[in-house]
Specification:
Rossmann fold; 3 domains; alpha/beta; 46% helix; 18 helices; 475 residues; four-stranded antiparallel β-sheet; Alpha-Beta Plaits
Length: 475
């Protein structure tokens, strides 16, 4: 995986990587605060071997150290612990007390440290001191034991608990939460087979990416007009102009007079892409005829504010009256629109009929660029039928939604139909891609926003108010 792909994953899943350690840290902090604090008190004992007259020998020191280790085990024996319980009148068993007592030796010394843990700091100190005293007494009574034991330092009442360690627990939880979140992100990325990058499109569809269209939403109190027309100075409109330019390069050596815009599944943005691309092409001065050839769920007429009572279906069924009979002038200068019309019972047969082929020939003969919006490729056969009759196809892919397999099957369907794929459009992209930054939603540029505040119309609205309503085809 390339380094920039790691950054891409981080940009998309940052909330998981941040939320994991945050939740773990908060939970550890809260749970630690709810736990009953435990205190530890320690008394220190000095073990000495009974010395014979004369200077201290090295063997005497070694013997004292071994004796210290022996006493470390004896101090936790049941007789000593029972004495502590009796002296302090403790309401606990020997086993319970034994679990609270720990004895350790100080390395390279003759010191023993007896530690007692308890929820009551004063009781912990009392038990530690009583334990030391009881062991000294018992050791003195056992005449067979070598050496003597004395208290080097009595236990003091502790001020701070040793458990829970809130800070340490929180830090450990944050680290574990981060690791778990990173692992979860890695698993999700491994299981996620949706297309996200241009490289994914090129690998599965075998086509270059014409443009990366950011995710956006229409501003409130606006119709469904193409954004390229409504806000022509926005970064989003510039994206469709980039698409137009890349399309020109992709078809430089080809005679492309008709284009089909389609997608693998519904809801991937093919209709919006078709409308905005038409506006971008019309802005160069070339005439464009937009045909809504989706005879199952037409929606292109809503973007151009046109009725859908009559259109392509009527033209194909009647087969008379010329191609201008159902063409509609739009509010965008240079764009003529042919609605879908009433929904027929046999869309595939109608689109595959000789009349459809003759209609496309007549439309392209006008010299205008013909753009067709079609149903999804993998849902019905309509798109494949139309693809075989047009000069090129643009495949719209929804970033983060369309799966690799769907793109591969869409390409296979187009290949079987003998279609020419001019390129793909990666739609609804979020994050930083190829030098552009998409924040997830579309907002109008500063100059358009200022125009809106002053009561002026956006550039697209002003252009529509001055548009000449006339057919864009030769009669």
């Amino acid at each position: 995986m390339e380094l920039r792909r790691y950054f891409s994953v981080l940009a998309r899943r940052w909330w998981m990587i941040l939320l994991g350690p945050l939740i773990a840290g908060v939970c550890a902090f809260v749970v630690s605060g709810l736990l009953t604090p435990v205190y530890s008190a320690s008394s220190t004992l000095l073990v000495n071997q009974v010395q014979s007259e004369g200077p201290i020998q090295y063997n005497d020191i070694l013997t004292s150290e071994r004796l210290t280790n022996t006493y470390a085990e004896l101090i936790r024996q049941r007789p000593v612990l029972q004495t502590v319980i009796d002296r302090l009148d403790l309401e606990m068993s020997i086993d319970d007390l034994q679990d609270r007592v720990s004895v350790s030796t100080v390395q390279d010394t003759q010191l023993l440290r007896a530690s007692v843990r308890d929820e009551d700091p004063a009781l912990a100190a009392d038990i530690a001191n009583t334990l030391a005293s009881a062991f000294i007494t018992q050791n003195a009574e056992e005449l067979g034991r070598p050496g003597t034991v004395s208290i080097a330092e009595e236990a003091r009442i502790p001020d701070d608990p040793v458990e829970p360690r809130t800070t340490l627990n929180t830090v450990i939880a944050v680290v574990l939460g981060l690791l778990l979140a990173a692992g979860l992100v890695a698993v999700l990325e491994y299981l996620d087979d949706t297309v996200k990058r241009p490289e994914d499109v090129e690998e599965r569809a075998g086509a270059t990416t014409l443009a990366l269209v950011p995710r956006f939403r229409q501003p409130r109190n606006r119709g469904r007009a193409p954004v390229t027309e409504e806000w022509p100075h926005s970064a989003l409109a510039e994206t469709f102009r980039v698409m137009r330019t890349n399309l020109q390069f992709a078809s430089m050596d080809l005679q492309v007079k008709s284009l089909l815009v389609t997608s693998a599944h519904p809801g991937e943005g093919k209709t919006t892409t078709c409308a905005n691309l038409a506006v971008a092409i019309a802005q160069t001065g070339r005439r464009v005829i937009v045909v809504d050839s989706d005879l199952r769920r037409p929606s292109l007429h809503l973007l151009f504010s046109q009725p859908n009572r009559q259109g392509l279906t009527n033209q194909l069924l009647l087969g008379e009256g010329g191609i201008t009979r159902f063409l509609r002038a739009t509010e965008v200068e240079g764009i003529t629109f042919l609605p879908a019309g009433l929904l027929p019972p046999n869309p595939a047969e109608l689109l595959g009929s000789p009349r459809m082929g003759r209609l496309l020939d007549e439309l392209t003969a006008t010299g205008a660029m013909v753009l067709l919006d079609s149903p999804p490729l993998l849902s019905v056969a309509d798109a494949a039928i139309l693809a075989a009759q047009t000069d090129g196809v643009i495949l719209v892919v929804d970033a983060g939604k369309t799966r690799h397999e769907a793109v591969r099957r869409a390409r296979a369907t187009l290949d079987r139909a003998g279609a020419r794929i001019l390129g793909a459009v990666l739609n609804r992209v979020t994050g930083r891609r190829e030098g552009y930054y998409y924040d997830g939603y579309y907002s109008a540029p500063a100059q358009d926003a200022a125009a809106g505040r002053s009561g002026a119309q956006p550039a697209g609205a002003a252009a529509r108010s001055q548009a000449v309503r006339r057919p864009m085809v030769d009669k």
